[in-house]
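The aim of this short unit is practical: by the end, you should be able to scan a pair of folded records and say something sensible about each. We start with the first protein, listed as its amino acid sequence and then its structure tokens.
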Amino acid sequence: MEVLRVHVIDHVRKYLYMRYTDPLTGQQVSRSTGETERKAADRTTAKWEAELQQGRYSKPHTISWQKFRRRFEDEKLLGLSDNYASNMNHIQKVGIKRLADIDAAAVSKFQSRLRRPGCRRRR
């Protein structure tokens, strides 16, 4: 396994940044340390490096709803009931673009649409 190293860099901004090269994609990944002093930035960088090396860090889920749905259907849907696919269609009608968009507000919006007149309940 390749050793992953995170480095502090100065983008001439308010805060110092930290960066590493993703061993799988070869792309550079950077984010703010939230620190203005080098010593504090080095501590923050060491914590992030440890999280990355131990697999504790996961970046925010930016997968699109379509990609999630395709993957879910391929891997999981075969073992579930036929109504499950229909329910996923209803969620899509709310206007979800990314999986990360599903939060309390989106669920509330979904529930309110189900309560509208003309929305039939199945029994």
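Turning to the second protein, read its sequence before its tokens, just as you did above.
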Amino acid sequence: MAAQLFKNIQRLSVMLAIAGGVNSALYTVDPGHTAVIVDRFVGVKANVIGEGAHFLIPWVQRPIIFDVRMRQKKISVITSSKDLLKVNIKLQILFRPVATELPKIFKTLGYEYDCAEKMLSSVTNEVLEAVASQFDAREIITQRELVYQKVSEELIERGSQLGLIIDNVFIKRLTCSRQFTMPVEMRQEAEKARLLEEAEQHKKATILTAEGDTQEAALLASFVLASLVLVSCVALLTFGELEEAFGKLGEAYVEHRRLKAADEQMENDC
């Protein structure tokens, strides 16, 4: 009886040992995560492990789980423009680790691999200071799109050096010193008002031009009609009548010239 009990205990111990070994050799990578294997003998392995259940060698290997989901970080910086005026910039950055770069990140940063996010803050400060120094305050206000483009390009490049993918950069706020911003905003409003006034005047000029064209067309039509009437009247005269009319007109012109010449002669004699 005792011998049978001892055998049962042995079997149970073996089963528990096997179950414990299997459990220690099994690990799970949740969705949105990636694992890097650290081996006691070869160090950090180059391949990365995706989501799902996986096996490893107990005691020899250990999984390091990374969160590779997109994350959001808000950063506010007060820096100086090219003309040394204060610029307040607030960014919202969407980023995630490059999965294939995780072994390299872990080798470089060790167990402080989450400090890549902290390094992103430092890099963002450097980028914002560098970009702001390329523009004066007026250009920062009037050329926001260009400032945004330069900041995005620099952050994407610097992020790749850290093993991070910068999915998007939003400039939530971009302002200069209030005493400078107000005159610039007033000038912008004045420019908008001027453009609206020019558009209104152009519209009125177009309407007047159209009305003038209509009047000119009416006058031309009247002239053509009068010409047609005159031609019709002339067509009703006979050749002899036309000859007689032009003859009388010529005689009158000759008499007019004779009288004028006589008057000029009398003035000269006097």
